Amino acid sequence: MDVKVIKNRHDYTTALEQIEALIDLDPQLGTREADRLELLTLLVQDYETKEFPATLPDPVEAIQFRMEQQGLTQRDLVPYLGGRSKVSEVLAGKRPLTLSMIRALHNGLGIPAKVLLQERDPTLLDDTEVEWERFPIREMISRGWIQANAKNVREEAEDLLRGFFAPLGPPSAVAALYRKTGHIRSARQMDEYALHAWTARVLLRAREEAPSGEYEPGSVTFDFMQELARLSTSGRGPLAARHFLEEHGIALIVEPHLPRTHLDGAAMIGPEGKPVIGLTLRHDRLDNFWFCLMHELVHVARHLDPSTPQFYDDLEVGNQGDPREAEADELAGEALIPQAVWRQSPAAVLRSPDAAQDLADQLGIHPAIVAGHKQHAEGNYKILHHLVGRGEVRACFPEINWG
């Protein structure tokens, strides 16, 4: 059987002519001619698959074809596309299909998902049990987290949010984020969707602003924290702290909290398993910055693990009887001002700026930390108020939109 592989258009044309001649012969099965016809047909099909790949029909054409098949009018498409004007715009090619439309057309009219999705990932139609409309998408757009026109966000919410979360992984991984709320310290109910959006923003920034150093588990010790605390004396202490942590593989991300989250800070497991600390600077005070930072560092050192990959803290409330929060409070305070030193200091009994400054000099820390400790110890936030560094932290991060 002198049949050869089809390598070019000439071979293809010759094979078609031979197939046509063999078909005219109508050979019986099992004969040499029938086998030759079968082999030539396979070779032609293989060549056509490689040289003339099938193209998918345009999604709008697919919808119109299904309408003709089932005798549907534009009004019949309203349940799938969400309004007569939207139906007209989609069929005229003036409005793109959103994921919710695609899902409805696929499930309701049986139009193949690959036709409607075209170049999109087919897993986009997987049911992730995420209520996309509950995310504070307008706020996310206003902060520049998502580039979009805020006027049409309701119908495009899923598309826009999937794009926002996409760098964190496939839909299944993103959905898993919503099922792991981590540990929350707060006396008020936090909006979990807002909390997840903030978490994603912090993790995305941690990817973009990856620390230069390598994180070594066990490196965050009490001495490490005290060394960090001594950077507070710098005029730009918060920036020095961020640089110090980056050198040790820990990302420090400053990101204002979203409404209804009541959040001061968080510790979480970030990209490639590295720890990430997020601070909101909800209270623009130096003493608050340093205590929040130390508190989250204790979580990094002692408490973060795959079973609890995030700790969220509203530090306006007590530890609520949680031993991990109690430990984080105690060690954070001890790293800044050891209790043994505090009890022996005149600052413990005097409401004097000089006493606060003397203790700060003794410990090598900023006097704002001493003033804040004094306020907390006495439950009086009016004393030494001029020393706590109001308005001095956010100024270190002018790139942040504080609203």
User: Could you give the distance between the termini?
Assistant: 80 Å
Let me know the largest β-sheet. 5 strands, mixed
Rg on CA atoms, Å: 32 Å
Strand content: 5-15%
Helix content: 40-55%
What's the number of helices? 18
Shape: elongated
Briefly say what this structure is:
This protein is mostly helical and 403 residues long. It has helices spanning 9-25, 32-51, 59-70, 78-81, 84-91, 99-109, 113-117, 137-142, 153-165, 171-179, 192-208, 222-229, 237-247, 286-303, 323-336, 339-344, 353-363, 367-378, and strands at residues 183-185, 251-254, 265-269, 275-279, 310-313.
Question: If you had to describe this structure to a student in words, what would you say it looks like?
Answer:
- The chain is mainly alpha-helical and 403 residues long.
- It has 4 domains: 9-51, no CATH class; 59-125, 434 Repressor (Amino-terminal Domain) (Orthogonal Bundle), CATH 1.10.260; 133-174, no CATH class; 181-196 and 204-403, no CATH class.
- Helix content is 50%, strand content 5%.
- It has 18 helices and 5 strands.
- The chain has helices at residues 9-25, 32-51, 59-70, 78-81, 84-91, 99-109, 113-117, 137-142, 153-165, 171-179, 192-208, 222-229, 237-247, 286-303, 323-336, 339-344, 353-363, 367-378; strands at residues 183-185, 251-254, 265-269, 275-279, 310-313.
- A 5-stranded mixed β-sheet has the order 1-5-3-4-2, sandwiched between helices.
- A hairpin with a 5-residue loop joins strand 3 (265-269) and strand 4 (275-279).
- Helix 17 crosses helix 18.
- The protein starts with 8 loop residues before the first helix and ends in a 25-residue tail after the last helix.
- The model has no long low-confidence stretch (mean pLDDT 87).
